[in-house]
Amino acid sequence: MDIHGCKGCFGGHGKKECPCVQKDDMAQIYPAVRDCDVIVLASPLYYWTMSGQLRTALDRLFALEEGDGNLLRGNGKSSALLMAAEGHGFEDAVLYYDHLMEHLRWENLGHVLAGGNMDVGDIKGKSEIQQAFDLGKSIQ
User: Fold this and answer.
1) Hey, where are the domains in the chain?
2) What is the pLDDT of residues 62-107, one digit of tens each?
């Protein structure tokens, strides 16, 4: 998707169809976020955090918190985090995610963090596959 970085302009208006002043593919994401109950964030681990692409989209969700009503915080939403990596250094990503859930007042459904995956197929047979399945199954 073509998603540009947040300009920090504080020009957003949560109740508009496209709450951000920028016109890009976030226009497809805003309605989905408004209407959903659960958001599953999935990312490889890049430099000890989520991918830049995911972080850019998350930053842009701020427009839903601006202007004429906060349509992002609270509202009974829940989220889970799924990550995979070559290594095992997920601490910073989980810290960011946990703080984000606290700020947004979303229920934190947990994390599945699969380290040690360098090559295609490395994850086969690992317990994280079952953990992700169980997490998905627990969401009602």
Assistant:
1) 37-51+73-138
2) 998 887 777 788 889 999 999 999 999 999 999 999 999 999 999 9
Task: Please name the residues in contact with 92: beta carbons below 8 A apart, sequence gap of 6 or more.
Answer: 48, 49
pTM of the model: 0.91
Residues 45-63: b if buried by 16+ CB within 10 A, e if exposed: beeebbbeebbbbbebbbb
- Residue showing tokens 């408004």: 34
> Rounded to an integer, what is the distance from CA 33 to the centroid of its chain?
10
What is the distance between the alpha carbons of residues 107 and 110, in angstroms, rounded to a whole number? 9
Backbone angles phi, psi at 64, to 5 degrees: -75, -15
- At 122, the amino acid letter reads D
37-51+73-138 topology per CATH: Rossmann fold (3.40.50)
Say which residue the tokens 């349509």 belong to.
Answer: 71
How large is the average pLDDT for residues 100-129? 96
Helix (H, G, I), strand (E, B) or coil at 33: helix
> What are the DSSP E strand ranges found in the chain?
38-44, 78-84, 107-114
